[in-house]
Design a protein that fits this description.
homodimer; 323 residues; alpha+beta; Glutamine Phosphoribosylpyrophosphate, subunit 1, domain 1; eight-stranded mixed beta sheet; four-stranded antiparallel beta sheet; 8 helices; 31% helix; globular
Chain lengths: 323, 323
Amino acid sequence: MFLYLIVVGLLSCDGQMLVKDKNPDFILVIHGGAGTILKENMTDEKEQQYEAKLREALKAGSKILKNGGSSLDAVTETICVLEDSPLFNAGKGAVFTAEGVNEMDASIMDGSDLNAGAVTGVRSIKNPIRAARAVMENSPHVLLSGAGADTFALQQGLTIVEPEYFFTKRRWESYQKVKAKKEQGEKHGTVGAVALDMQGNLAAATSTGGMTYKMKGRVGDSPIIGAGTYADNNTCAVSATGHGEFFMRNVVAYDISALMKYKGLSLTDAADEVIQKKLKAIGGDGGIIAVDKDGNFTMTFNTAGMYRGFISSEGEMEVLIFK
Amino acid sequence: MFLYLIVVGLLSCDGQMLVKDKNPDFILVIHGGAGTILKENMTDEKEQQYEAKLREALKAGSKILKNGGSSLDAVTETICVLEDSPLFNAGKGAVFTAEGVNEMDASIMDGSDLNAGAVTGVRSIKNPIRAARAVMENSPHVLLSGAGADTFALQQGLTIVEPEYFFTKRRWESYQKVKAKKEQGEKHGTVGAVALDMQGNLAAATSTGGMTYKMKGRVGDSPIIGAGTYADNNTCAVSATGHGEFFMRNVVAYDISALMKYKGLSLTDAADEVIQKKLKAIGGDGGIIAVDKDGNFTMTFNTAGMYRGFISSEGEMEVLIFK
């Protein structure tokens, strides 16, 4: 794994790696949400902002991987960069619920031992992904919800912020428009990261603010192990984004792993089977990023666009937004 | 399906159907929780109470199936009988959280269209399984949590009760003992039902009070589609009971379906692979009930006992508690 191998990768229009001759020592893949993201609706300035933030997140995670750090640390710190940005629907940039508050979900999974942690409906934690990780590492539980999760995060010494921290003009205006029934609520914008480290360990993490104007208490796929997030060193690490209910009913993240494990499909074939066939057939909008135990990866989606990118031990880095 | 076929079934010591020559028109299988349920700790009176209630639940569900009703209705009404009894850790008999309140979870899934609904952390709904079904049928969501779920149930016209309704002396004493650190909290006692109806549709439902003295906001596997509950007409319907965190990390209910779908395993082999091998190897206590599209069923567990039973269109009915 420590040999300096050369990765030869070609990206297809939907961002999948088609040809890869050698395995990278490490790889990190991220997404910032899939949806009706069209070039014609995007200013150059906005596009540059997104690309810069995706690059910053990739660099934060890859620095850890390059120094021999764990995939778990890499996905955690990568997600924190995205959570701290107002651009994405997670952490700082979380959308508003029907009640005009921010309720966030996050989850993380360690492919080396199938340990996992998640929180749902948290309101005060600056970085929900750190709370998910604390649930995994410092509690006997997998999923904590609502005030119980906020209290746990406080007890764990995580950074707690006032509700005002999560106020962003853009999300508030979006909330007001949905409230006035002037437009559909945003269903997308979740952030995610998957990584393979130099020890061969896989990890996956996902964080979201959910849907604009979502019903009080609505839980989507992001905090659900097997739906929005899954990692197993024997197969792959997956983070999903899209219309959560479809991803929950189809157990999307674990289904990709199961297709590899039980049916012998490659990562790309397994991901395409789930995202481009199964979900597309029933109107389940969204996409996933995934990396397998050999460092192959895919970033596949059935929507107009998905904020996404990857960086490998070979120094390759690419960020993409549209199809 | 309407022919009067004869089911020849032999039950092994762990309650699995080993030989079955013909397919039943319908079948209903239930559980009332798995755990350290030992004959020597049970009075004859208590054993009779459990057996009588399991039979009552089976009769309520099978009456619906016999009249050509849906598996969805059958599992709903079956679960309601168990939720209304103080014997099981669901509804009326729900255990107490660390804060001394009752927070319940439930989920339901329709194998004909992979639709699903669930609630977690509800406090005021007499029959949480009806709330899960309302989420499935009357909301665009799959999972609602906490006060949002209670409010939704009220709006749906479901029966709402005062907190006192869920008080039972037995569960309160158990709570006090755990609080005084005199004993371990009960991790088990969930109820579940799976059914195949005369139209060939599968359904699964699960309901629980969770773990005694559970941390505020702790969500187990019962409300998680793919972990505690799963149904797909192409494979099987599954309801799980046990140490929830292990069932979530291993995506137990969906994994059984995936082993059938992708690896071609029989229902019994798939269930044994997950419960007796995978989970047993990592100390994941518990069991599942499941029925496949042909009416084969299994009730397998890796604990000392599991309250369980089945009834088929052939008039066969059996309830079991110990190994």
